[in-house]
Each structure stands twice: as C-alpha cells, then as structure tokens.
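Hey team,

Sharing the Nbr1 FW domain-containing protein run so nobody has to redo it. Sequence (189 residues) first:
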Amino acid sequence: MASTDVADLLFRFQQIQADDHDILMNRFCELIQGANQDSAQFYLESFNWNLQAAVNAWFEYGGVVSLPRAKFIDDVTIGEGQSVPPSNEFTKTWAIQNNGHTPWPTGCRLEYINGRKLAGPNSVEVPALQAGETTQVSVNMMSPEETGLYESRWSLVTERGAHFGDTIWCIIPVEEGGTLAVTQMIERL
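Structure output:
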C-alpha cells in the first residue's frame, strides 16, 4: 500500500463518528473495495466494532476480497452465425450464469474491454443474479462500413471496476448481402 493510500485511509478514519453497526459495516466495505457485509461484520465484531482496528486486521491477517463468479452459457443472438451487411444496426445477445455461491452485487455491468468497438455502448447493466441464476444480456451494435471479420471482447465488471467471470467474445462477419440485420428486424415484427 502506497504512503498516500495510508495517509488517505488515516484521514478517512478521523472523519468517522458512528456507532450504528450497519453504518460501520457499510463504511468498512467502502474502505476495502470488494469486501462483503459478512466479512465486515466478522472483522468489526472481532474488534468490538472499532472500524480502524477491523480494517487494520483485514490487511494484517490477509483478508481476501471475493469476486462474483460468472459463466458464459451461450450466444443466443437471433440470427447467430449470419453475416451482417456494412453499416447496419444489430443486437448481440449472450446467456450468462452466476455460477458462484453468492448473489452478484447490484451495479454490475457487461463492459467492452478491447477489439473492434462496434459503435455500441461501452457497457450495459446486468441484473444482480442470485447464485445459479441465468440471464440474457443484449448489446445494440452497428457493423463497420467495410467488409471483414470483426471481433471484440467484453467482461463482466462490478460497480467498483473489478472484472470477473468468463470473457465474452463478439465475432461478426461483415459482408455485402449479410442477413443478420434483416433476420432480427423480421423477428421483432
């Protein structure tokens, strides 16, 4: 931990004046990004609800932040495998599952991380799935003006920016006469 981080942490401790347990647990989770309420309660109870002592213990005893888990299930895009004509809007849809043992926190999103950005959003919100639940996530995109094979990578991300789960690929063949956009338009009718 850098000295500026330590100084910032100490400054934050000096600003805290709370004896409500819920407030202390929330503050613990704010200070240790990725810590969950159960960990916060354990450390705070262990140190008689002294926030500074609990946070110090977290670092001293090697507290581990557990990230959510996610599994790519399938590409369920309507017309999957069809090529897209140049400069056409289309929607890419993937099925994903929370394959962990705990619910996902609120505020998770699917975020573009690299490859060819297909004129869509940088990220889309994802529901806070319970353990074992599956959902479909869709991203509206626009095919490039030039023909070719384009790919981009997407990742699930917590509200605090921690990436988790399988990488999700978008691979799109762009060809004159491609039918994906038309197939999706017909499906919406």
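The first helix runs from residue 3 to 15.

Ping me if you want the raw files.
A.
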